[in-house]
Amino acid sequence: MREIKFIGSNEKTLVSMNKEYGWSLNLKELLMVKDYFEKLKREPTRAEIETIAQTWSEHCKHKTFSGPVEFIWKDRSGKIKMKKKFDNLFKETIVYATKKLNKKYCLSVFKDNAGIIELYPGSKWGICFKAETHNHPCAIEPYGGAETGVGGVIRDILGVGMGAKPVIDTDIFCFAYPDKKYDIGKGFLTPHNIISGVVSGVRDYGNKMGIPTANGAVVFDDSYIYNPLVYVGSAGLIPKDKINKKVVPQSLIVVIGGRTGRDGIGGATFSSADIEEETSSSHVQIGNAINEKKVLDVLLKARDMGLYTAVTDCGAGGFSSAIGELASDCGAEVWLDKALLKDENIEPWEIWVSESQERMVLCVPEKNLNKLKEICEMEECEFCVVGRFTDTKKLEVYHKKNKIIDLDMKFLHAGLVQIAKKAVYKERKTNYNSISIKNSEIPERFKKIISDLNVCSKRSIVEQYDHEVIGQTVIKPFCSMEQRVPSDSAVIWAGNVTGENNHRGFAVSCGINSRISKISPYIMSYYVVDEAVRNLVCVGADITRGAILDNFCSANPNYEDVMGDFTASAISASKAALDISMPYISGKDSFYNQTAVKNRVYKIPTTLLISAIAPVEDVRNAVSSDIKSEGNPIYVIGEFKKGMGGSVYRELFKGDDFVSSIDLKKNRKYYLKIIESMRKKHILSAHDVSDGGFLTAVLEMALCGKGVEINIGGIKDKYKVSDAEALFGECGSKIILEVDIRKEKEFINFMREAPMLKVGKVIQGSSFILTDKGNIVFKEDVLKLREIWERKII
Amino acid sequence: MEIEIITLERFDVESENIEKVFSDFSGLNSKIKLSRIYEISKDANKDYFKKIAEEVLYDPVVENFKLIGSDKRVFPGYKIFVKVSFKKGVTDVVGESVKKIISEMGYESPKEVKTSKGFYFSLNDKTEIINFIKENYANELIHNIIVEEI
Predict the structure, then answer these.
(1) Domain A625-794 = CATH 3.90.650.10
(2) Is there a contact between B141 and A286 if contact means CB atoms under 8 Å apart?
(3) Domain-by-domain residue ranges, chain B?
(4) What is the ipTM of this complex?
(5) Are A231 and A609 in contact (CB under 8 A)?
(6) Chain A residue with minimum CA distance to B18
(7) E strands present in A195-298
(8) Domain covering B2-149 assigned CATH 3.30.1280.10 in the classification
(9) What is the pLDDT of residues A503-559, one digit of tens each?
(10) Nearest CA in chain B to A140
């Protein structure tokens, strides 16, 4: 048994050992560990230090977000605008919003592997939802990293409550441009290599699991050159009576699924460090979807037979984290030599922290073991008994006769005392300058915008995923007969899992915007919360019973400016949720997304992904975004606002960097009216205005080959904006609606209090016509524009 | 023995895509052919590998296969061959599945199955090709890259 010398070691030695072993503990934490073992009057074992490092890691503990923060907000002149001390930033922002909203349909929030809301009032089912990041693994091995990211988030759904059935996966990526030449540092992968690998990994895992990948987004920005962001999500359905789990002392600790090997050792602590030019191959995790499918089949059968009382997935930190968390209130005795191994040439501490994939840990009463064994054999799923839960409040781990870990659960899970991080948020100087654009410039600029990677079709990525498997995806990533029009949300029918004879389901969407974040991370959070919710509104989902997830990604939080941006963004994310009345139910954060190459530090901007979910009363009535019939009027609901900040137009042709703020309380009012109007069947199609601006959004709706005529004059007059702001600006919260001409009067009357403007109509043929006060500015065939928009990404 | 599977010309969209990526990357044109390689460790005669190729690995409608032993690799019209395979110790999930399927189909189980990707180039520019593969289709952290002149 290998001991590490802590007692009597000075600070320099501790720091040097920390670097050598890759624990990613800070000096204060190292001193706490030293103090603990000095009181015990013995040296720690390697396994004990590895366990502490994993349990206290950023990935497992989220110590930055849930830690104390001293926040200072400075205005553009450098004057202090606000000073605030947070004891626990996460609880005082994200959790605060959820508590304040106090929605009764939220069945489980922030305490399990995923959040859960009720499928509909009085339903026996809940919808669970979780999104994760797998950034660091994807930066070094994109295929394996993406695969295991998908596998991990699916296991979160399998491990929520007593286990849920996953029914939809989501994927949201942030990459550098694959078609741009970068001077890439030695040892780093090119954006093309990363994108191909990540997309293939998501495809191969999701498709083989038989779960549709049906919602997502892709963002391109130079900032992600060395730190791609790979968010993966999964939603599932769970019977309400299976939401609570209980660990019973004396029950067996059973592991089902994959074997344990040396792959992925140190993944959790790796997420607490910057990526360096030399990174070890031991961080690479390899996925095997077939094994996970077997785990899924065993788990759901065993759940329905009541064979176990608690379950969790083996993710970051491996057994150390999974068993440690399950046993945190009682204690556990673990026999590592009983674990099934891929390779016998593995150290005991490596078995304990290995992040080998596709493993779930179950708490099984001894009397049920044989029945569980029968199911595992039937599904050809390997399983082993690796220990027993106890009531000693201690974590005791053995390898053969050697006790390699003997730690108090209290020290392990509550022993971490955190240092307050300094956060300084400086408002960026922005300038408003109403830019003009000549009518003659509009056609070429528009074509350039729709072929930009942030705007163009994501078909070459999306079509690699099976988004229809299990036959329950009602609104798919592309709609219309030919599947050419991008959808705002995926809509999933729940009936084939619940077995209920109804058409209930739910919608899933997302919002992300790094361009605004570079100008104002504070305003960015409002925009992404709004976009995610607006996407739900576009399909007619019931946002009064919806929920959202927060996934923050940031650079190294030890820099006060990075922490400042992050804190400002978390504050506004909380306010945005309160304003739009959507509670957070789960989330995850990922720090240290920065890389030093050739003496330059590359940091990502604070990037917040909001994933949203809401029930759909009748999936047959869900509204798609493709234009339906000639003669119907086209309306825009929502205000056009000043500023070209955050727009694709500005990235391509310059422009001011001003971003108007948005009022989510006000937006919610007209979003609810739109949903009600959809129920009244006034609205035939709906689409939100996002990347590319208003004109792009209208074109996207017409990509099914329908002709439209749009008049820009009314927009400029009503909202006092420039041509560029009207056509290509991305400020404000707008939804474009195709209204049934037979119900237009009813619609106008019903929506009269909303900011509303009739902007055009669906015409015969397939011409896309833009007019300004009667004059034709631009006329082109929709099918020709579609060719430009449908460029290949990879 | 290696079983190499190549998609028939008229169905081979993937190779076409790689040609385009190569042209964008290097500014050069080359005919490129992608192949899937299964390296099967088993002391057996050619019939054993032929049957495994026919019954387990290849799709006769859209693909062709060839067996490659210790002979020099040949592919008329192509000059450089690059093989991208997993480094020792990296889990080869497809290889493991193929090994299992072979025994489940009633054949004697091989000792090991290792999978690789093969890239044939008509262009004879080793340096450019290696750079292209390294930057687009391999990750040296987990892959070995072997280049042969054919």
Answers:
(1) yes
(2) no
(3) 2-149
(4) 0.76
(5) yes
(6) A794
(7) 213-220, 229-239, 252-257
(8) yes
(9) 999 999 999 999 999 999 999 999 999 999 999 999 999 999 999 999 999 999 999
(10) B141
